[in-house]
Design brief:
Distance between the termini: 35 Å
Pfam family, one: CpsB_CapC
Number of strands: 9
Largest sheet: 6 strands, parallel
Strand content: 5-15%
CATH superfamily: Metal-dependent hydrolases
InterPro entries: Caps_polysacc_synth_CpsB/CapC, Pol/histidinol_Pase-like
Shape: globular
Structural class: alpha/beta
CATH class: Alpha Beta
Helix content: 25-40%
Strand order of the largest sheet: 3-5-6-7-8-9
Order of helices and strands: HEHEEHEEHEHEHHEHEHH
Family: Belongs to the metallo-dependent hydrolases superfamily. CpsB/CapC family.
Number of domains: 1
EC number: 3.1.3.48
CATH architecture: Alpha-Beta Barrel
Catalytic activity: O-phospho-L-tyrosyl-[protein] + H2O = L-tyrosyl-[protein] + phosphate
Oligomer: single chain
CATH topology: TIM Barrel
Length: 249
Amino acid sequence: MGLLDLFKRKKTEITDDLSLKWLEVDMHSHLIPGIDDGSKTLEESIELVKRLHGYGLRKLITTPHIMSEFYRNTPEIIGLGLEDLRLGLAKEGIDIEIHAAAEYYLDEIFLEKVQGGEKLLTVKDNLVLVETGFINRPQMLLEIFFAMEMNGYRPIFAHPERYQYLIQDKKLLSDLFDREIYFQINLLSLTGFYSKPVKSFAEMLVDEGKVRFFGTDCHNHRYLDMLESLPASKYFGKIQQLDLLNRNL
């Protein structure tokens, strides 16, 4: 732990204790060790799950990246990693329900999977968590969403508040609203963890009633250190009153 991390821990300790009991289920995280940019070891994963459980969550659906260029995970790789994590948690006596889906990167390879009828990992039923790059709008974004819907899947758009192209493109945002695409916001966005513009956009989406899911997007302890400052956010009370779908997962 570096000096910066120590400072962050001390800073979060002066806020109210974080409770996510109202959320019940975290459906976006990277807790399977060693397969993406999240947790690196089983020991780290166990400690992260222990902290998440301590916030009052009753269930975790962890979502490793599937990206054709960087993280070539498969349902088999993810399933084996989940099994190892479950065994590790059982040995430590941590009693929390944990499942795995995936966070799919939207590109031509993913579109081929959908159009080819490949079975996707779902958060529940037909719900699939998807992401894009942060800067440039994918040219096939709406086409991919349409293909998913035609093949029986309902996309959940991961952390749309972090996409610079979406912040700047009001027409695209309106199109996504009209298509009733599910938006999943990162709780950390409301703390200013990513940037002020991201925080402002997340707050706007909350105000407009467009958020159906929240997730921690937990990758490591630094994420949870900052997450513990969430009770200081002026939106912490407001998001607890939203009609969220997390509780139905």
